[in-house]
Amino acid sequence: MEKLIITCAISGAEVTKEDNYFVPYTIKEMAVEAYFAYIAGASIIHLHVREDDGTPTQDKTRFEETMKEIKKLCPDVIIQPSTGGAVGMSNDERLQPTELSPEMCTLDCGSVNFGGSEVFINTEDDITYFAKKIYEKGILPELECFGKMHVDQVMRLHKKGIIKEHLHFGLVLGVPGGMTGTKRDFIFLKDSLPKNSTYSVAGIGRFEFPLAELAIIHGGHVRVGLEDNLFIEKGVKAKGNRALVERVVELAKKHNREIATPNEARKILGLKV
Ligand code: KMH
Ligand code: ZN
Predict the structure, then answer these.
(1) In angstroms, how far is the first alpha carbon of the chain from the final one?
(2) Residue 157 domain flag
(3) Which end of the chain is flanked by fewer CB atoms within 10 Å, N or C?
(4) What is the extent of the structural domain holding 201?
């Protein structure tokens, strides 16, 4: 089986230090969390940035400075900035990190309720606009899908030539308002993906580790991190992203799946080494 790519979503835009003290805000905290995730086995860092007080921002300069600090500590890691940002941001605001031409970024492939009154909006026109900007810069998008209808949306846009190969999906399961993270839903979703595509699974909250284990068993890849889950076990907060990545490495060992280095991840994803 292909080696396992571990992505670590170190911060996100929604969780706070009140939720878990180790959620990074400052550039230094981001770099340190990325480094510990990397030495534990993560080859991709999924990156949101914040102001020092924790306010989410998509500011290009903030991304540039944060990426520079991360690269100082882990020069070969793949950095995957978010173009999702935070609910309510404009498209051009969200797209700012693409101007830095990172190797990867996210491309959110449909709208989803985000609990309460929040809707994360990604219309077909939005996705088309994002895709054009992303491919223009030669960036590989991770196609974030919160349910089966988003996979269908990707395939319609792929048929029109708007979304291009290599298709690397990010299956985000367990968002309140999205598809659940049960085994049944995971199997259905991964079996719906086209041949020659790759996928990484992000289970939100309690779905994080059960889905990680299923992805390991079924040849998929895994995303973990404080953006998605704050706990190392029921009622016990994780002491940083490193602990979450280490748990995935343990699960991979249990199933004899080797961990990909960043360059091995690049080969799997068709990125330049
Ligand atoms: N923070 C969410 C609104 C992504 O990174 O592309 C969007 C998100 C998805 O986290
Ligand atoms: Zn994100």
Answers:
(1) 21
(2) yes
(3) C
(4) 6-269
How many domains is the chain partitioned into structurally?
Answer: 1
Q: What atom in ligand 1 is closest to the CA of residue 120?
A: 3
From ligand 1's centre to the CA of 31, what distance in Å? 20
Block residue for tokens 């190969």: 165
Could you give the dihedral angle defined by the CA atoms of residues 8, 12, 14 and 18, in that order, rounded to the nearest 10 degrees? 70
- Residue 81 CA to ligand 1 center (angstroms) comes to 10
Q: How confident is the prediction along the chain (273 residues), in pLDDT tens digits per residue?
A: 999 999 999 999 999 999 999 999 999 999 999 999 999 999 999 999 999 999 999 999 999 999 999 999 999 999 999 999 999 999 999 999 999 999 999 999 999 999 999 999 999 999 999 999 999 999 999 999 999 999 999 999 999 999 999 999 999 999 999 999 999 999 999 999 999 999 999 999 999 999 999 999 999 999 999 999 999 999 999 999 999 999 999 999 999 999 999 999 999 999 999
Which of 4, 12, 2, 64 has the alpha carbon at shortest distance from 40?
4
Pocket residue to mutate for ligand 1, from 82, 118, 172, most atoms within 8 A of Cβ? 82
Q: Are the beta carbons of 219 and 196 closer than 8 angstroms? A: no
DSSP 98: G
Structural domain includes residue 1: no
Radius of gyration of the chain (CA): 17
d(CA 214, ligand 1 centre) in Å: 23
Decide: pTM greater than 0.70.
Answer: yes
- Ligand 1 pocket, residues with Cβ under 6 angstroms: 12-14, 82-84, 86-87, 106, 108, 120, 144
Does some domain include residue 160? yes
CATH number of the CATH domain containing 103: 3.20.20.70
